[in-house]
Amino acid sequence: MNILKSAIVTAAALAFTALVPFAAAGAADKIIIGCTATTDCASAAVAEKEGIFEKNGLDAHMLLIGLNSNIPAALLSNSIQIGGPTPSVFLQAVDGGLDLVAVAGASVSDKSTADTAAVVARPDSGIKTAKDFVGKKVGAPGIGAFLQVLFAQWLIQNGVDPKQVNFVEVTFPTMNDVLKSGAVDAVVTAGPVMANMINSKTGVVVSHYLEELPDGKPQVMLAATRSWADAHPAQLAAFRKSLDEAAKIVNSDPDKAREALSGFTKIPMKVLNTIKVSVSDPKITKEQLDWWVDVMNKQDMLQKKTPDTAALIAK
Fold it and tell me: What's the rounded Cα separation, in Å, for the pair 313 and 226?
């Protein structure tokens, strides 16, 4: 077992302890879906709130996860059966030896929603350009997660070595307080948490750096252990069918999506009403994963430079 895999296994044990009230979710007839407090898992939230999961014969429920990088560990410990990691977190977990598979898509990049994520700095930080981040402490909802990886890519494109920035993990729910206290100089953030920080004047937007991202690239995907996916083909088919139905609602009725997200994240509607909901797309393809592999290889994030991405998608 390599060092990375050993660390993930250890983290899995801790994740199981943290989520012990949900340990019973390992039963074959129940599915716990773990996601962070963004709009990226809106389709799953809508599927639960609108009774779509139940209609399709599933006992499935959402669980709020603080850090995206904790999701592979929670999957491994069976504290959750399906999780919403970013593609970078998923690919690093697989690269480290975990046998995970993508089971569906969640959200994808789109120019219309590029302003739903940003790097937000304290008003007194003096940060205004990419070069101002050198030597600063930046909080991210998971090192190696989508927001952090693409922010690092933005730094590179603007002539800054990401190694000159001190990244620390900060959970979405604590970002406002951590930024306000001065424990970090900035955070890479998204969705309702970002809106709350801006509205409360805790932080100011330095860059909506996702504007440089091509459309249709997965921001968050839904994954499971290969053993769970192989053992539950009927449930997996019903889950995918449910997401197909729910994604149509998310993309056509964002107010209904916000209501579902508020119930899942406990974020007030007055905050959610100020932001856009990520575009939902329940498909996940080899080409999408290949794009992420290329981005991650540019930052030396993978030991195996050419993973078999086709084999990483559940049948």
Answer: 9
Distance separating alpha carbons of residues 128 and 205, to the nearest angstrom: 9
Annotate 79-103 with DSSP letters as a single string: S-SEE---HHHHHHHHHTT--EEEE
Q: What is the pLDDT of residues 126-163, one digit of tens each?
A: 999 999 999 999 999 888 888 899 999 999 989 999 99
Q: How are beta strands 137-140 and 186-190 bridged, if at all?
A: parallel
> What angle is formed at CA 226 by the lines to CA 277 and CA 55, rounded to 5 degrees?
50
Amino acid residing at 238: A
* Cα Rg of the chain, angstroms: 18
Range of the domain at 134: 112-212
Q: What pLDDT band is residue 15 in, cutting at 50, 70 and 90?
A: very low
pLDDT 10s digits, 153-206: 999 989 999 999 999 999 998 999 999 999 999 999 988 889 889 989 999 999
222 and 96 part of one domain: yes
204-207 β-sheet, strand order: 166-169, 137-140, 186-190, 117-121, 204-207
Kindly report the pTM of this predicted structure. 0.80
Residue 130's domain is classified under what CATH number?
Answer: 3.40.190.10
Which residues partner with 101 through β-bridges? 224
67, amino acid identity: L
